[in-house]
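Try it yourself: sequence plus zinc ion, in.
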Amino acid sequence: MSGTTRKPWEITGSAPLEPDVGPVDDGGPCGIGQCDRDATYRVAWPHFGSDEALCPFHLCRFRAHHGEVWSQMRELDVEDPDAHAVRGQRFVTLDEVPDQVAVDGEKMNRVALGVDGLALFDSAEPDDGMVLFATVNRRLEPVESTKVARSQAGRFVLWYRDHEGVYRWDPDAQAALYGGEPADV
Ligand SMILES: [Zn+2]
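Structure, out:
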């Protein structure tokens, strides 16, 4: 910048309007409306010709939905976005999440896909009044798990919805939570 004699109005508009693409270090919020996670990578936004910083989950979704923009980004001289999108092995859609998995030998049913790209499962056959809840990544590895009393299971799921965030409910789990069954079991 030193030595420039141009006035601000001469500089304005001289640079081409190009999206800024690459890793985000300042930890600002994800650019997707309701998401409150920190952004990790800035992508070229296809519809507006601008850019947006996304969290790992929304980066993963962006990669799934905007393949052409993604491959263009990979050709740029920036850190490979793939390294950020595959981190944590997240699910992108509920369809990718199996209806049932086994965690530590226990049969588990799908409950929801969280906004963090991890799927929530609960015990298919709870024993001694306790229900195991576990979040599972795309490799079907448990990430976190907790056991709650069966009478508290509905309350736990609502806590998960409010604190972790649900991207999509399993239809059966949603029906059990919001229809037919008593709200406070
Ligand atoms: Zn996000």
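One thing you can check immediately is this: The longest strand covers residues 106-114.
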